[in-house]
């Protein structure tokens, strides 16, 4: 155990600790979690930029190759429910390092896959690593920085998500063109290895504070506040994923933008989401009820006005950027909101959070596809506005903090 780790041991084991000023070792530990989120989410989103060469090399259609994303999400949803049960009373630092090691192995397997089923197996391993990490993330961050700074800590951790969302598909596509898709996949194994090293050096020992059973996880769902927290995730993230996939078709068909202009608008979305990460953490620590309401209201406003006035290029650019800002706040505000409903059971709440996100992504994809086929490019954005507005109403039912 390093000196850095030993300095953190006593300060980070209990949630009762509140750190008004973060030490260098605290920053290092939180940044190692951010590096892990960047590595895992980069690997998750990488196939978006690799589908064509990957499908060609493995002798499958692009539609079939796209199922590697489904494999990651579906395995992740199941694992999220069981992760905190299976790890029992293992030291949480050991678990996190082990999950990063699994990500390394899974990405290496995927990069050397000689057929589609080996690729699926590698992606399934990544799904386990992703869901396990996110199920533990809020509890670990709360132990590192104190319960009252969880929003700020999660903002830094989820900054890795925003950066990976922007970088992985585009950089992956470039590397694939230059060196091949297998090299691009192998590089994500390298990112996971770096994250694992940072965890070994910076995280304190984190003995299990509880050992969850599946019954404990489901018992939490009886709480009204937990139900509201899960419903907020389902509504807002279903709305986001139902509509965001079809922003580009909307800009092409309604705003009539050229490809370069669309790329610029989507870049604005990505940059704004990074800024939203930071803002979300600050507002969540001050008032989680306000943070949830603001996040949902901005997304509802952006989607609705896009539908009503999206023919004007300048307005469309501004609203896509606003949507990105709101989306950046979401992965910070929503988990923090759910964790406030079960401060003594953060790991079990983390499992429910991951399941809620995975279900929302799946539902959003299904409903968004149905709506765009039947009502055109503006349809999914209208659905986003309705579900986000419903989340605003739900936020008003949240307890004040």
C-alpha-based Rg, rounded: 20 Å
Any idea how many domains? Answer: 2
Number of helices: 17
Shape: globular
In percent terms, what proportion of residues is strand? Answer: under 5%
Helix content: over 70%
In CATH's first tier, which class of the largest domain applies? Mainly Alpha
Largest sheet: none
CATH architecture of the largest domain: Up-down Bundle
Q: Tell me the distance between the termini.
A: 38 Å
Broad structural category: mainly alpha
Strand segment count? 0
Order of helices and strands: HHHHHHHHHHHHHHHHH
- Averaging pLDDT over every residue, what do you get? 86
What name does the CATH topology of the largest domain carry?
A: Growth Hormone, Chain: A
Model description:
The chain is mostly helical. It has two domains: 3-14 and 22-202, MFS general substrate transporter like domains (Growth Hormone, Chain: A, Up-down Bundle); 214-395, MFS general substrate transporter like domains (Growth Hormone, Chain: A). It has 17 helices and no strands. It has helices at 3-12, 24-45, 51-58, 62-65, 67-86, 92-111, 116-145, 150-179, 181-202, 214-220, 224-244, 247-253, 259-286, 288-309, 313-340, 346-375, 378-395. Helix 6 (92-111) packs antiparallel against helix 7 (116-145), helix 7 packs across helix 16 (346-375) and helix 14 runs antiparallel to helix 15.
